[in-house]
């Protein structure tokens, strides 16, 4: 097996612990759902470099936590996008101190329990990418495998899994990267992507941006053009979008 390994650049700043965590011994607290903790101050946004190219972003002040722009309202055929995003953000559980102390873990498994919110999530991405001539959706293990395939099927693109080391059986290229809580590596099958293909990278969350950076590097080394990266959640305080080599990032929800 041929394995070429490259190391992504260090993140500009790693995770800063939250100012107060009420329950440091337990990972789960209370929530509107009996079994879920309360949502953090999640801010809803569809801002991305791609949007900025189309329409200047102008918050219209619906709420201190909801930042909409004119372009947000034009991205959906019936202007129903923001209620959908509002609902999606309430379905994401925040688990303090997982997988280690100080991390506020954004848990999308609770979003998956709600078929409407899960479908709305996929639909929002499909509406954005269906006419963008994308031939490859590259999903990042593991949670990018949940959102990537339904998007790929809906827009008529192939799905390419970007996997953790030693999971793919064929010849691979590899990229190492630095995480919010450790180091890791992504691999892609040689031949899965052809030169000049237009690729979308999908994951559940961008934190430091190291994972997306590694994914972009893999696709570009194969000769593909990375059109955009798409995630459900961004942790903007970690400035991950600054590590994406100038590629646009589209997200549904910001978490602080
Ligand atoms: O922007 P970054 O700092 O690179 O972090 C984001 C990545 O971290 C999480 O995956 P994780 O590595 O925890 O793996 P998992 O999906 O297999 O749990 C998340 O699903 C992203 O892939
Ligand atoms: N805070 C977080 N929640 C969920 N996944 C993550 N990956 C990196 N940071 C994360």
TrEMBL record:
It is found in: Cytoplasm. It is an enzyme of class 2 (transferase). The keyword Cytoplasm applies. One of its GO terms (biological process) is purine ribonucleoside salvage. GO terms for cellular component: cytosol. GO terms for molecular function: adenine phosphoribosyltransferase activity. CDD domains: PRTases_typeI (cd06223). Its EC number is 2.4.2.7. The keyword Oxidoreductase does not apply. Pathway: Purine metabolism; AMP biosynthesis via salvage pathway; AMP from adenine: step 1/1. Residues 114-237 form the Phosphoribosyltransferase domain. Keywords: Cytoplasm, Glycosyltransferase, Purine salvage, Transferase. It catalyses: AMP + diphosphate = 5-phospho-alpha-D-ribose 1-diphosphate + adenine. InterPro entries: Ade_phspho_trans (IPR005764), Adenine_PRTase (IPR050120), PRTase-like (IPR029057), PRTase_dom (IPR000836). Its main location: cytoplasm. Homodimer. Belongs to the purine/pyrimidine phosphoribosyltransferase family. This is adenine phosphoribosyltransferase.
